[in-house]
């Protein structure tokens, strides 16, 4: 590839380290001279005109969509459904009267997503693509594009594109809220600046992540990721990251679902990563940790500054409660990276996987 790794042993590590700059670049790109949000008027109008948004994506981009649903529903008050592209294509849900489709795709070339785009365009609907590659197929064939400005992502495991997707979705949600005259107690560009600094702090302190990966994951064949609410979605992403590059069987679970089945899998020393960044869910998720510990699990609690308890393994710097996924995903990325490294896996090119999946 003509993108150089420089002194980095892997593209993945380089791309993780680039994340603070990606966020700062997005802040610049989506800002007018007067400091206000800069978005095409036609996109604003499409967001205003719709009665329901359908987000369609695969893999990590789908996980970003799950968080994006929370942003758009909570800030802009528009109902959002999030669909896996390959499922949507052959099991189309009933559509509302004025649907708007949002495709999220790092590459803009994912065949499953494109198949849905072709279908909904044929039906006469409008589509917006969030992509890292303007000019890609999904960008050209949609009505509107919001670029991610993450720079080329080479590693198969997506990292910086995910946080870019989240940042652009937050900007879109705030802009839509404002266009509808809703007042928000939220300055997105300022809050994203705080996020960039928080990610930088994490990237400057990787030792603890390496330790967790070495002690905790390198000898196991399975791992749990527990979260509630927005943390649950980050757990899905953390588990995907770990499985794709380290080949450890990993699953993200909603804390409350444990007792409905998954807890049967807990054995002595099963690694359980639990994420707690939401004050109103903190007691509940810590209750879930107690349940798995009582069955022998080995817990690793990741909490947020200001919410830490004794025994927490790691604390992320405090950021706005809506934007925690952009920061809490970073320890997950790093733990996966070091676990893969420890197990001698090919981090940038994991077996059986392609960077962009251009077959359905
Ligand atoms: C992420 O780490 C994966 N390799 C994969 O899930 C990816 O996110 C998915 O294939 C979607 O790709 P896209 O964003 O380019 O459409």
UniProtKB/TrEMBL annotation:
GO terms for cellular component: cytosol. It comes from Aneurinibacillus aneurinilyticus ATCC 12856. The active site is at residue 355. It comes from the Bacteria. Its EC number is 2.6.1.16. The keyword Cytoplasm applies. It catalyses: D-fructose 6-phosphate + L-glutamine = D-glucosamine 6-phosphate + L-glutamate. Residues 39-182, 212-350 form the SIS domain. It is an enzyme of class 2 (transferase). Catalyzes the first step in hexosamine metabolism, converting fructose-6P into glucosamine-6P using glutamine as a nitrogen source. It is found in: Cytoplasm. Transmembrane segments: none annotated. GO terms for molecular function: carbohydrate derivative binding; glutamine-fructose-6-phosphate transaminase (isomerizing) activity. The gene is glmS. The keyword DNA-binding does not apply. Keywords: Aminotransferase, Cytoplasm, Glutamine amidotransferase, Repeat, Transferase. One of its GO terms (biological process) is carbohydrate metabolic process. This is Glutamine--fructose-6-phosphate aminotransferase [isomerizing]. Homodimer.
């Amino acid at each position: 590839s003509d993108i150089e790794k420089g002194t980095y042993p892997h593209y993945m590590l380089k791309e993780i380290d680039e994340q603070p700059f990606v966020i700062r670049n997005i802040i610049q790109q989506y800002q007018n001279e007067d400091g206000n949000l800069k978005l095409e008027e036609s996109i604003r109008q499409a967001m205003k005109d719709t009665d329901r948004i359908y987000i369609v994506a695969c893999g990590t981009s789908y996980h970003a969509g799950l968080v994006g649903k929370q942003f758009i529903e909570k800030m802009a008050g528009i109902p959002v459904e999030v669909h896996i592209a390959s499922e949507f294509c052959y099991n189309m849900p009933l559509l509302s009267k004025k649907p708007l489709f949002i495709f999220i795709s790092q590459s803009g070339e994912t065949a499953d997503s494109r198949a849905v785009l072709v279908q909904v365009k044929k039906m006469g609907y409008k589509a917006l693509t969030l992509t890292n590659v303007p000019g890609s197929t999904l960008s050209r064939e949609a009505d509107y594009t919001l670029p991610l400005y993450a720079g080329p992502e080479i590693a198969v495991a997506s990292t910086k594109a995910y946080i870019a997707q989240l940042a652009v979705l937050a900007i879109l949600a705030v802009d839509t809220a404002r266009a509808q005259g809703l007042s928000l107690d939220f300055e997105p560009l300022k809050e994203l600046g705080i996020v960039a600094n928080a990610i930088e702090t994490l990237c400057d302190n990787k030792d603890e992540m390496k330790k967790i990966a070495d002690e905790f994951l390198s000898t196991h064949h399975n791992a749990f990721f527990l979260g509630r609410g927005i943390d649950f979605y980050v757990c899905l992403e953390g588990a995907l990251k770990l499985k794709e590059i380290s080949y450890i069987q990993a699953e993200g679970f909603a804390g409350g679902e444990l007792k409905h089945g998954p807890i049967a899998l807990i054995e002595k020393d099963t690694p359980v990563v639990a994420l707690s960044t939401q004050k109103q869910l903190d007691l509940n998720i810590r209750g879930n940790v107690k349940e798995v510990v009582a069955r022998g699990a080995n817990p690793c609690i990741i909490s947020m500054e200001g919410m830490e308890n004794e025994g927490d393994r790691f604390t992320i710097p405090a950021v706005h409660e809506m934007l925690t996924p952009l920061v809490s995903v970073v320890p997950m990325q790093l733990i996966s990276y070091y676990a893969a490294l420890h197990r001698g896996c090919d981090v940038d090119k994991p077996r059986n996987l392609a960077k962009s999946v251009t077959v359905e």
